[in-house]
Amino acid sequence: MSARGAFDPSIAVSHPFRRIALRRPSQRIAVLLTLLAVTLQGCIIVRDGDGDIPPAPSYIELINLTGLVIDANFFISGSATDEVGLFVRENIYTAYSTHVIPTLGAHETAAFFLECDATRSIGVRRPVFQNLFTLTGGESSDVIFLLRARDFSCGERLRFVYFAEGDQYHVRLERPQ
């Protein structure tokens, strides 16, 4: 046992230039946690400017089960709290598509993340299904409106499935585990 203030090698940490004695338990815990974080592979936690952990982004999938091309009519808003506010031209989301005209191709799936702060509400309104060769198809009358904290949570996985039943076209919401 060493006297107070004296160097105790049992609680020292090697450093390239010197040895540091850790006198307080809180210092020992901080060093141990730092060493664990550096040596263990895994998740990196990013904190925002206030030191809070930002909420996880939502994982969205748009799945086309038909042989038709679909104008998905997928909308997102960081502020809208009702259908009237969400379903406006400036809230239509097309970044999921790599096509010149933003569509969801036949039997195509688009998957992407949406940051929580950017998604106060999300939804689909009246998607359009088209056969580009025969110029046939139709419009679904389905509308899905989701409000964060009421209908979905940050970090949740949401799947919008576009499908046909006979000559009727639909979109449904699924919440896979």
Fill in the keyword field for this structure:
2 domains, single chain, 2 helices, 11% helix, Immunoglobulin-like, 177 residues, elongated, mainly beta, four-stranded mixed β-sheet
SSE succession = EEHEEEHEEEEEEE
In total, how many domains does the architecture comprise? Answer: 2
Which topology of the largest domain does CATH recognise? Immunoglobulin-like
**What radius of gyration results from the CA coordinates?**
26 Å
Overall pLDDT metric: 82
- Class computed from helices, strands and strand pairing: mainly beta
CATH top level assignment of the largest domain: Mainly Beta
How much strand content do the residues show? 25-35%
Strand ordering within the main sheet: 6-3-11-12
Secondary structure: helix percent: 10-25%
- Beta-strand segment tally: 12
**Whole-Å distance between the termini?**
55 Å
Unreliable stretches covering 5 or more consecutive residues: 10-20
Describe the structure.
A four-stranded mixed sheet has the order 6-3-11-12, with no helix packed on it. Strands 4-8-9 form a three-stranded antiparallel sheet, with no helix packed on it. The chain has a three-stranded antiparallel sheet with strand order 5-7-10. It folds into two domains: 9-39, no CATH class; 58-174, Immunoglobulin-like (Sandwich), CATH 2.60.40. Helix content is 11%, strand content 34%. By secondary structure, it is mainly β.
